[in-house]
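Annual report, structural modelling task.

Input specification for the flavin mononucleotide complex:
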Amino acid sequence: MKFVYGCIVVTMLLCSSSALAGVSLPAPQQAGGMGLFEALKKRSSATGGDFSLAEVTREELSTILWAASGLNRGDKGWTVPMWRGVPPYCRVYVAANDGIFLYDWKNHSLEKISNENIKGKIGKQSFVKKAYYVLIFVSDAEILSQFNSTDITRDFSHAAVGAMTQNVYLACAALQIGTRYIHAINVDEIVRALELPQGDIPIALMLLGK
Ligand SMILES: Cc1cc2nc3c(=O)[nH]c(=O)nc-3n(C[C@H](O)[C@H](O)[C@H](O)COP(=O)(O)O)c2cc1C
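The model returned the following structure:
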Protein backbone atom coordinates (compact mmCIF):
# COMPACT_ATOMS: atom_id res chain seq x y z
CA MET A 1 0.00 0.00 0.00
CA LYS A 2 2.83 2.36 0.95
CA PHE A 3 4.40 1.65 -2.45
CA VAL A 4 1.16 2.57 -4.27
CA TYR A 5 0.88 5.85 -2.32
CA GLY A 6 4.54 6.58 -3.08
CA CYS A 7 3.93 6.04 -6.81
CA ILE A 8 0.89 8.36 -6.73
CA VAL A 9 2.85 11.12 -4.96
CA VAL A 10 5.81 10.83 -7.37
CA THR A 11 3.44 10.91 -10.38
CA MET A 12 1.69 14.01 -8.99
CA LEU A 13 5.01 15.76 -8.41
CA LEU A 14 6.19 14.92 -11.93
CA CYS A 15 2.94 16.18 -13.44
CA SER A 16 3.00 19.47 -11.52
CA SER A 17 6.67 20.16 -12.32
CA SER A 18 6.23 19.39 -16.03
CA ALA A 19 3.23 21.78 -16.05
CA LEU A 20 5.65 24.55 -15.01
CA ALA A 21 8.49 23.50 -17.30
CA GLY A 22 9.98 25.39 -20.25
CA VAL A 23 7.78 26.03 -23.26
CA SER A 24 9.43 26.27 -26.66
CA LEU A 25 8.48 29.06 -29.04
CA PRO A 26 8.33 28.82 -32.85
CA ALA A 27 11.09 30.70 -34.68
CA PRO A 28 10.36 34.44 -34.80
CA GLN A 29 9.68 36.13 -38.12
CA GLN A 30 12.93 37.87 -39.12
CA ALA A 31 12.30 38.66 -42.78
CA GLY A 32 9.56 39.79 -45.13
CA GLY A 33 6.33 41.30 -43.88
CA MET A 34 5.50 45.00 -43.69
CA GLY A 35 8.38 47.41 -44.30
CA LEU A 36 9.79 49.47 -41.41
CA PHE A 37 8.54 52.79 -42.75
CA GLU A 38 5.02 51.52 -43.24
CA ALA A 39 5.11 50.09 -39.68
CA LEU A 40 6.29 53.48 -38.37
CA LYS A 41 3.42 55.13 -40.21
CA LYS A 42 0.92 52.66 -38.71
CA ARG A 43 2.25 52.55 -35.11
CA SER A 44 -0.47 53.51 -32.67
CA SER A 45 -2.12 52.46 -29.42
CA ALA A 46 -5.23 50.32 -29.66
CA THR A 47 -8.08 51.60 -27.51
CA GLY A 48 -9.53 49.54 -24.66
CA GLY A 49 -12.55 48.62 -26.77
CA ASP A 50 -10.28 47.11 -29.46
CA PHE A 51 -9.23 44.18 -27.26
CA SER A 52 -11.58 41.25 -27.75
CA LEU A 53 -9.75 38.17 -26.41
CA ALA A 54 -9.33 36.88 -30.01
CA GLU A 55 -6.29 34.63 -30.14
CA VAL A 56 -2.80 35.96 -30.77
CA THR A 57 -0.92 32.97 -32.18
CA ARG A 58 2.26 31.46 -30.73
CA GLU A 59 4.05 32.53 -33.93
CA GLU A 60 2.94 36.13 -33.43
CA LEU A 61 3.86 36.07 -29.72
CA SER A 62 7.26 34.63 -30.62
CA THR A 63 7.97 37.46 -33.08
CA ILE A 64 6.80 40.14 -30.63
CA LEU A 65 8.97 38.78 -27.78
CA TRP A 66 11.96 38.57 -30.08
CA ALA A 67 11.37 42.19 -31.13
CA ALA A 68 11.14 43.18 -27.45
CA SER A 69 14.48 41.72 -26.31
CA GLY A 70 15.64 38.87 -28.51
CA LEU A 71 19.15 38.22 -29.78
CA ASN A 72 19.81 39.57 -33.27
CA ARG A 73 23.63 39.25 -33.51
CA GLY A 74 25.24 36.12 -32.11
CA ASP A 75 25.01 35.72 -28.34
CA LYS A 76 25.74 39.35 -27.35
CA GLY A 77 23.60 41.58 -29.50
CA TRP A 78 19.94 42.37 -28.96
CA THR A 79 17.09 44.01 -30.84
CA VAL A 80 17.28 46.80 -28.21
CA PRO A 81 20.31 48.82 -27.05
CA MET A 82 21.77 47.83 -23.66
CA TRP A 83 24.40 49.91 -21.87
CA ARG A 84 27.86 48.65 -22.90
CA GLY A 85 26.20 45.54 -24.27
CA VAL A 86 25.52 44.02 -20.84
CA PRO A 87 22.70 41.45 -20.93
CA PRO A 88 19.16 42.87 -20.83
CA TYR A 89 18.51 44.32 -17.38
CA CYS A 90 14.75 44.28 -17.87
CA ARG A 91 12.86 41.00 -18.11
CA VAL A 92 9.65 40.36 -20.02
CA TYR A 93 6.90 38.20 -18.55
CA VAL A 94 3.79 37.05 -20.40
CA ALA A 95 0.46 36.91 -18.56
CA ALA A 96 -1.79 34.47 -20.42
CA ASN A 97 -5.08 32.67 -19.83
CA ASP A 98 -3.19 29.57 -18.70
CA GLY A 99 -0.60 31.19 -16.48
CA ILE A 100 2.48 33.39 -16.27
CA PHE A 101 5.62 32.85 -18.36
CA LEU A 102 9.09 34.39 -18.27
CA TYR A 103 10.73 35.11 -21.64
CA ASP A 104 14.19 33.55 -21.85
CA TRP A 105 16.00 35.58 -24.53
CA LYS A 106 19.04 33.24 -24.47
CA ASN A 107 17.03 30.27 -25.72
CA HIS A 108 14.11 32.19 -27.20
CA SER A 109 11.71 30.18 -25.08
CA LEU A 110 9.25 30.65 -22.25
CA GLU A 111 9.50 29.34 -18.72
CA LYS A 112 6.17 28.81 -17.00
CA ILE A 113 6.34 30.21 -13.49
CA SER A 114 2.70 29.99 -12.42
CA ASN A 115 -0.65 28.55 -13.49
CA GLU A 116 -2.50 31.68 -12.35
CA ASN A 117 -4.39 33.96 -14.78
CA ILE A 118 -3.50 37.42 -13.44
CA LYS A 119 -4.67 39.54 -16.38
CA GLY A 120 -7.65 40.86 -14.44
CA LYS A 121 -5.57 41.96 -11.45
CA ILE A 122 -2.44 43.69 -12.73
CA GLY A 123 -3.80 46.81 -14.43
CA LYS A 124 -5.94 49.61 -13.03
CA GLN A 125 -8.10 49.74 -16.18
CA SER A 126 -10.75 47.08 -16.69
CA PHE A 127 -9.89 46.45 -20.36
CA VAL A 128 -6.45 45.07 -19.44
CA LYS A 129 -8.02 41.67 -18.79
CA LYS A 130 -9.47 41.60 -22.32
CA ALA A 131 -6.04 41.46 -23.94
CA TYR A 132 -5.13 37.97 -25.13
CA TYR A 133 -1.63 38.37 -23.72
CA VAL A 134 -0.27 41.01 -21.36
CA LEU A 135 3.48 41.59 -21.44
CA ILE A 136 4.95 42.72 -18.11
CA PHE A 137 8.27 44.61 -18.12
CA VAL A 138 10.33 44.32 -14.92
CA SER A 139 13.72 45.81 -14.07
CA ASP A 140 16.34 43.30 -12.91
CA ALA A 141 17.94 44.55 -9.67
CA GLU A 142 20.73 41.98 -9.72
CA ILE A 143 22.12 43.05 -13.11
CA LEU A 144 21.46 46.75 -12.35
CA SER A 145 23.31 46.58 -9.00
CA GLN A 146 26.61 47.08 -10.87
CA PHE A 147 25.63 50.73 -11.51
CA ASN A 148 25.62 51.55 -7.80
CA SER A 149 23.23 54.45 -8.20
CA THR A 150 19.46 54.46 -7.86
CA ASP A 151 19.16 57.32 -10.38
CA ILE A 152 21.12 55.41 -13.01
CA THR A 153 19.31 52.12 -12.43
CA ARG A 154 15.96 53.91 -12.78
CA ASP A 155 17.04 55.85 -15.89
CA PHE A 156 18.65 52.86 -17.60
CA SER A 157 15.78 50.49 -16.90
CA HIS A 158 13.24 53.04 -18.17
CA ALA A 159 15.35 53.65 -21.30
CA ALA A 160 15.44 49.88 -21.88
CA VAL A 161 11.69 49.47 -21.41
CA GLY A 162 11.11 52.45 -23.74
CA ALA A 163 13.12 50.74 -26.49
CA MET A 164 11.53 47.35 -25.83
CA THR A 165 8.00 48.66 -25.88
CA GLN A 166 8.54 50.73 -29.04
CA ASN A 167 9.82 47.55 -30.73
CA VAL A 168 6.62 45.85 -29.56
CA TYR A 169 4.58 48.71 -31.05
CA LEU A 170 6.38 48.35 -34.40
CA ALA A 171 6.19 44.54 -34.47
CA CYS A 172 2.48 44.74 -33.65
CA ALA A 173 1.92 47.31 -36.39
CA ALA A 174 3.64 44.98 -38.87
CA LEU A 175 1.63 41.97 -37.67
CA GLN A 176 -1.63 43.94 -37.42
CA ILE A 177 -2.06 43.17 -33.73
CA GLY A 178 -3.44 45.72 -31.30
CA THR A 179 -1.17 46.89 -28.50
CA ARG A 180 -1.10 49.58 -25.82
CA TYR A 181 1.52 50.77 -23.29
CA ILE A 182 0.09 50.79 -19.75
CA HIS A 183 1.68 52.68 -16.87
CA ALA A 184 -1.33 52.37 -14.52
CA ILE A 185 -0.36 49.03 -12.98
CA ASN A 186 -0.94 47.26 -9.68
CA VAL A 187 2.67 46.93 -8.58
CA ASP A 188 1.99 44.91 -5.41
CA GLU A 189 -0.08 42.36 -7.31
CA ILE A 190 2.65 41.93 -9.93
CA VAL A 191 5.35 41.57 -7.28
CA ARG A 192 3.27 38.90 -5.53
CA ALA A 193 2.24 36.92 -8.59
CA LEU A 194 5.68 36.95 -10.21
CA GLU A 195 7.41 36.30 -6.85
CA LEU A 196 9.83 39.09 -7.71
CA PRO A 197 13.08 39.27 -5.76
CA GLN A 198 13.64 42.36 -3.58
CA GLY A 199 14.52 45.39 -5.72
CA ASP A 200 13.01 44.20 -9.01
CA ILE A 201 10.52 46.83 -10.16
CA PRO A 202 7.51 46.33 -12.46
CA ILE A 203 7.62 49.24 -14.93
CA ALA A 204 4.89 48.83 -17.53
CA LEU A 205 2.53 46.51 -19.38
CA MET A 206 1.95 46.08 -23.08
CA LEU A 207 -1.44 44.63 -24.02
CA LEU A 208 -1.62 42.36 -27.08
CA GLY A 209 -4.87 41.56 -28.79
CA LYS A 210 -7.02 41.61 -31.92
C1 LIG B 1 4.62 56.69 -20.44
C2 LIG B 1 3.28 56.24 -20.95
C3 LIG B 1 2.33 55.81 -20.07
C4 LIG B 1 1.09 55.37 -20.53
N1 LIG B 1 0.20 54.87 -19.64
C5 LIG B 1 -1.02 54.48 -20.08
C6 LIG B 1 -1.95 53.95 -19.16
O1 LIG B 1 -1.70 53.77 -17.97
N2 LIG B 1 -3.17 53.59 -19.63
C7 LIG B 1 -3.51 53.72 -20.96
O2 LIG B 1 -4.62 53.37 -21.32
N3 LIG B 1 -2.61 54.20 -21.86
C8 LIG B 1 -1.38 54.57 -21.45
N4 LIG B 1 -0.46 55.03 -22.35
C9 LIG B 1 -0.80 55.06 -23.78
C10 LIG B 1 -0.99 56.50 -24.22
O3 LIG B 1 -2.15 57.02 -23.65
C11 LIG B 1 -1.02 56.58 -25.75
O4 LIG B 1 0.25 56.22 -26.21
C12 LIG B 1 -1.38 57.99 -26.18
O5 LIG B 1 -2.76 58.18 -26.06
C13 LIG B 1 -0.96 58.30 -27.59
O6 LIG B 1 -1.57 57.40 -28.50
P1 LIG B 1 -0.71 56.65 -29.61
O7 LIG B 1 0.20 55.69 -28.90
O8 LIG B 1 -1.74 55.97 -30.47
O9 LIG B 1 0.08 57.66 -30.37
C14 LIG B 1 0.79 55.43 -21.92
C15 LIG B 1 1.77 55.87 -22.81
C16 LIG B 1 2.99 56.26 -22.34
C17 LIG B 1 4.03 56.69 -23.34
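Residues 1-18 have pLDDT under 50 and may be disordered.
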